[in-house]
Specification:
Blueprint (H helix, E strand, L loop, with lengths): L6 E5 L3 E6 L3 E6 L4 E6 L2 E5 L5 E8 L2 E6 L2 H22 L5 H11 L3 H14 L14 E4 L1 E2 L18 E2 L2 H15 L9 E4 L8 H14 L11 E5 L9 H9 L2 E9 L3 H6 L6 H13 L3 E8 L7 H14 L7 E6 L8 H7 L7 H18 L5 E4 L8
Parallel strand pairs: 8-11, 11-12, 12-13, 13-14, 14-15, 15-16
Antiparallel strand pairs: 1-2, 2-3, 3-4, 4-5, 5-6, 6-7, 9-10
Helix pairs in contact: 1-3, 4-5, 9-11
Bound molecules: iron/sulfur cluster.
The site of iron/sulfur cluster has 13 residues, from loops.
Length: 392
Amino acid sequence: MPTKPAITIALQPQYLTLAEELRTIISFDREGRPIVAFLHGTNYVRGLSGDVLLKRVVSRGHKERRKLSAAERRAVLGDLLNHAHRMIDRLEPQAAAEARAWFDRIRHWDVDRLEAERERFLTVYKPISILPPDQYRALVLQATEGCSWNRCHFCTFYRDRAFRIHTPASFREHIQQVKTFVGAGLGLRKAIFLGDANALIIPQPRLRDLLQVVHEEFTIGPDADFKGIYAFLDIFGAERKTLADYRELAAAGVRRVYLGLESGDETVFRLLNKPGSPAEAIEAVRTIKAAGIAVGIILLVGAGGERLAADHVQHSLATIAAMHPGPEDIIYLSPLMIPPDTPYLAQMQAIDSPPLSEAALAAQLEQLKQGVRAIVPAGTKVVLYHIEEFVY
Ligand code: SF4
């Protein structure tokens, strides 16, 4: 008689993983919601938003990454839960009380309940459009909503909402809703990310009050569950903070600021319609680092198209070098995804600089990777940043 495949359980304080040999692996948060899975050779990540991201290798060096449609999502979740329930049925007779409690929580969820979480999520959050890759598992608190600029030619992340800054009272209410929604899954989150696009342009007195609310609601520090506070700064020049302001933020637990430099080339930077300039970005980074806060600097691979490619690479590397990044910093290389409904393409056509082909994009990525590695101290991370891999 053929033997049944071995089923294993790995119980961690904040998550549980069930595995049937190496073919089917599913992990759940403490609420019993699936968070990651490997099924039929494909990886899935389910975010708090209820979105499910698919990731798989389709050919050598070629990965498929995309969010599932509603129909695909329901099918994958149904399949995943069937596998999970089957594994639980086999494990349960010998399981300890703690594991049984986890099994009960997992069994609570069916596809309809998981899908209903999507609506609930949108009563708590505005959609979380993007995070830096090392913050995908942060707890996002939307101190602001949207982007105060919202006019970069390649970016549609926040076009769906007006910019607003929470008052301390409305921010506290938001935080309490977030805590209820995330529930026991909170333990998986080790950092606080202040949303949305530019939380650090909040004028300092208001930011101080909002950070005070964060500290009243969470314990933050090297030995606490939440290790630090993180945020984007995507606008350089305007609303500039001083060294003293950043020192105050460092003392309030801000550990890293993520800057969308996109390009160190003046012409490309202007074509993207980013506010400020590469020179102002250098100044901002130097001030932030002088205050003891690390930076994550994002470069757009392929920005400026074919005609400006050499300038983009050369001046981006020079700009990064002038920022003096160190091992505590991260340089992200993010392949430019051009949304169809933005002025970027028409603008590139007007200057006769078509987008890079896939091969040229891969070559520029390699050029930037090698170039950045050659100018940063050993230990400084240079990381690929695929925005299609994001799910919150
Ligand atoms: S500043 Fe950042 S978030 Fe705002 S429009 Fe530009 S790229 Fe998008």
